[in-house]
């Protein structure tokens, strides 16, 4: 690997944080059904971003099949289920906590063939991860207030109330069953585990090529990553369409927002790869696993009104403060102070 640049890594981490935390905002207004069409279009957008990266900075000589990670796609396919069950902010914050633990452990202990990377201050690094997880406990207590989305065109009935006041009343009447919440929480844990291993295939290939004397970069594998995403997504959608007897849930109004989300997600992932290269995954994973959830929570409060009430807002602020402290400790643990 090339020489690390901590400044570039932190800039990439900041951009990835903002983009990851905002990438689901465009689609949150629309009825996404079971989310399979959304994840397909999102992967198309991600592939477009991969083509741009390949054109300007990629390696034209080789497509690295081993880096076609399928963890991301399986996780994205469950995103809508999670957001409908426990909300965009709570879901993101919880799966980010699991991602933080898994991603940190894989890099710290060299699991699944990854390169083992130990920070300069091991004690501070571990304390930082624990503090980040404590922040996740604050987020787990937040109450989700479901929002009303724009229905698909064929779901709109002329008899539906049109006034603003009636629309607000309808939002307040939305309820989520305990079974739906439980399924969403289980999906959240599963998705967090998948996202925590998102860089595992790439790290393995870098370790393997490094042992053979070949200098590789994380971004070298980004286009392959996007190819794997679109292939897996297409297969999932084909199976889903067959299961639905060629009648998949497709909301045409979801197409452009999903593509925009994919472009944002692709750009965020590219920045994530850069941050992992210049900061090491042991530092980048905890930061990028939790910080986007903070951005997502801000959107949920200010725009979607998913988090309401003084108690929940105070819990959110406390969780954010604790998380920032943990992220700071993890970042400092990478710096050689003596």
Automatic annotation (TrEMBL):
The chain crosses the membrane at residues 37-57, 93-111, 123-142, 182-206, 218-242, 254-276, 282-304, 313-332. Pfam families: TMEM144 (PF07857). The keyword Transmembrane helix applies. GO terms for cellular component: membrane. It is a multi-pass membrane protein. Its main location: membrane. It is found in: Membrane. It comes from the Eukaryota. Belongs to the TMEM144 family. PANTHER family: TRANSMEMBRANE PROTEIN 144, TRANSMEMBRANE PROTEIN 144 HOMOLOG. This is EamA domain-containing protein. It comes from Necator americanus.
